[in-house]
Design goal:
single chain, alpha+beta, 6-stranded antiparallel sheet, 18 helices, 18 strands
Length: 567
């Protein structure tokens, strides 16, 4: 095409070849021009190629220098062609000093554990033509003897379809990372030791209810193999297939506040369960910490404390009753004894005066005066003194009997109440028959208590129902029954007797208090006070439900017996 162009424009049919090899006029000038053109054109092409090469070289250098990992490029014989600054720092060599040297003399490594020298990955790549994957079990020894924990890899360099003409070796410094991992490992070991001595269960769960960590305290019945297969918390701890209906995590997920409850297990174990959310930087729940503490001993101590406080309160009530008795009930007979003793003393003085002045009196007159003194005040005074002394004796015996109730050592055990009431009824058989009582006894649950003390309680309650029956009624009825109410047994002794007015119901449990002191029913007024004392010591409650003229119902609440007895 170029020949045709020259032929048509310049030489009018003379070709460029003819111009060079024939004697065409002026052809030397044209030859020089053409040679000059070709030279200039070639120079331009070479210049562009060199600039492009320098630019590519600069790009490659900039790319290598920006890489944080160490990079060494070798030729196919394993000699260093290029190193980036990171490689210079880690190896301790400058690129200009080691260029052309074997990479094994620059990149010296040993095994991190054994300390023995290990093979160079570049040599393996050259031998196999395959890349060597990352390995993080080596130590790089720099030119100045500094050791760095590293991870390295190597890969062949080749054009597509061509043979390998170089190798790229990459390595990164893991020293700080290894040190950090070691610190983390030591911290984890220390934390594990701390958690191992914590007696409480501490469990970390994610938002999907998976157990991430547990120190397994308090759940040692879970096999060690299963502990390694952490799963949903309800599957791990409760062996359930679905989320627990009372799951606290669901509650705190709504409130974003810690949740706490004290719960009693069927075996009597008490647990303090706390669940706390762990929030991420965005304020969302990412984990939940479940903290479970066995508080059985504390609860038992609290029960003992409450029982002691209850006994102390009861002692205070008894002390107040004693003060009342001492200031009122005992004081009345003492006043009588004191007063009539003075009258007796006056009568004795009068009698003494009569005897001293007996001279001049006839025998009949003396007898008359003595009879007047003795018959007038002495006998009456003596009768009141004796009656008051007997009253004091009754009161003191009552107080002694009540005090003995508090000193009797209790034997708490499961009590079969059906058998106990049968024994009580047999002991009151004559009174029931004599009074014409229609007694009904239902099926009674078993309770925890002292058998002998409960005999005294129900004997007293049934005996009171017999004594305070309504004799005008054609049919006198007494009913004994009971039922379970949660963990307690509630018993009742009801009758259709005279009943008690509401204003006096709280007073009937006081010591020596009687609604009718001079009524037809004898007694000292310590029966119900004794019953209340016994029930209080057994950890129970006693109360009355009554309506005057329609009968009474005495109720007793006591702790239920164990499941074996209830069954």
């Amino acid at each position: 095409m170029f020949d045709a162009f020259v032929d048509s424009i310049v030489f009018e049919g003379v070709t460029f070849v003819d111009m060079l090899f024939t004697q065409v006029p002026g052809h030397e000038i044209y030859v020089r021009l053409v040679v000059l053109f070709v030279s200039v054109f070639s120079g331009i092409l070479v210049s562009r190629f060199l600039r492009q090469r320098d630019k590519s070289e600069g790009n490659v250098r900039a790319a290598l220098n920006s890489i944080g990992d160490g990079v060494i490029v070798t030729d196919v014989s394993g000699r260093v062609v290029r190193m980036n600054p990171a490689a210079e720092i880690l190896t301790g060599f400058k690129q200009e000093a080691v260029k052309g040297q074997l990479v094994r003399d620059v990149f010296k490594t040993k095994d991190a554990e054994s300390g023995e020298a290990v093979g160079n990955p570049v040599e393996k790549v050259i031998a196999t033509g395959e890349a060597v994957e990352w390995s993080n079990d080596k130590v790089l020894v720099s030119h100045d003897g500094v050791e760095h924990q590293i991870a390295d890899s190597a890969a062949p360099v080749r054009w597509e379809g061509s043979d390998t003409f170089g190798v790229v070796l990459s390595f990164r410094d893991l020293t700080e990372s290894k040190q950090m991992h070691e610190k983390i490992r030591v911290t984890e070991d220390q934390l594990e030791k701390v958690m191992d001595v914590v007696p409480d269960l501490i469990s970390l769960q994610d938002s999907e209810m998976n157990v991430v960590y547990s120190n397994w305290k308090g759940v040692r019945d879970i096999d060690k193999e299963k502990r390694n297969e952490l799963d949903k918390c309800y599957g791990v701890y409760r062996n359930c297939k679905e989320m627990c209906p009372d799951c606290p995590v669901r509650k705190i997920a709504k409130t974003e506040k810690p949740w706490q409850v004290e719960s009693e297990l069927p075996d009597g174990t008490w647990l303090d369960i706390r669940v706390m959310p762990v929030l991420d930087p965005n304020g969302q729940e990412s984990y939940f910490v479940e903290w479970v503490r066995d508080i059985t001993d504390r609860k038992r101590d609290e029960q003992i404390r409450d029982k002691l406080l209850q006994e102390l309160e009861l002692k205070n009530e008894e002390l107040e009753s004693l003060i009342y008795v001492a200031s009122h009930d005992l004081r009345s007979p003492l006043v009588n004894i004191h007063g009539f003793s003075h009258e007796l003393q006056a009568s004795v003085e009068q009698l003494k005066e009569t005897v001293e002045n007996a001279e001049g009196l006839s025998e009949a007159q003396l007898k008359s005066k003595v009879r007047e003194v003795v018959g007038g005040g002495v006998f009456e005074s003596l009768q009141f003194i004796v009656a008051s002394a007997e009253k004091m004796d009754v009161l003191l015996k009552g107080l002694l009997s009540l005090s003995r109730v508090g000193r009797v050592e209790l034997k708490i055990e499961d009590v079969d109440m059906n058998g106990l009431i049968t024994k009580v009824v047999d002991g009151l058989a004559y009174q029931l028959q004599d009074a014409g009582i229609d007694l009904k006894v239902g099926s009674l649950p078993s309770c925890m208590g002292d058998y002998g003390q409960l005999i005294q309680v129900f004997t007293n309650l049934i005996d009171n129902a017999i004594k305070y029956r309504e004799s005008a009624r054609e049919s006198c009825e007494i009913e004994v029954g009971g039922e379970l109410d949660g963990g307690r047994c509630v018993y009742y002794v009801s009758d259709n007797g005279v009943g008690i007015h509401e204003d006096y119901q709280a007073k009937i449990f006081e010591v020596f208090h009687r609604l009718e002191p001079d009524g037809p029913v004898p007694g000292e007024g310590i029966g119900l006070a004794t019953v209340k004392r016994i029930i209080s010591r057994l950890g129970g409650k006693l109360w009355i439900e009554s309506e005057e003229g329609k009968g009474c119902c005495f109720c007793v609440s006591l702790p239920a017996a164990s499941e074996s007895i209830q069954g």
